[in-house]
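Its record is set out here:
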Amino acid sequence: MLEFLIVVAVCVLVGVGLVVATAWLLLRRLLRSRPVVVGSQLVAEGMLALAAFRPGPIANRAAALRAVRISRGHRLLHDRVTAAQRSGAYLGDVPAVLPRLEAEGRRIRDGLGRLVGGTTADPRLLARADRHLATLADLTEAVATATGVPVADETLAHEAEEAALGLRLHSAAYTELMAPGSSRDQASSSASR
């Protein structure tokens, strides 16, 4: 009878462990899902926007506005990168840099969020936010430009490279042949003697 109770207890413990592990994995996956992440970002942006645009005196409206602009800039850049990747445009290292850039933007937004409620302004953080906004604008413009460039076919690109190389070689040979003091000039001067 004791062995039976031990087996039942072990089975119950394993069952409870499986249920807890499954619930934990599902909750973790749910919290990392795209709708939850986007929703939490929208709530954070909404709180900053409310703080920036509410009537009456606010301690640091400039910090709130920059935080909202950084959030909008990251969302716009992410959308442009996704559209460019779908179209097959060449983006270079942009997709690899994007997570680090977003992490930096989150740190700046968090710092600006702390400034919104405070009475002091940190000029270094505001300057850092402005530089980050300029970087986002430049990168977004570059991605938009890359999206506008038609995607070249591999064979067409290879043929164009070969044609350009052939033209360069032909031009170099012609220039060398026609240059003063070339072997052709020396041969014609020796023949005239």
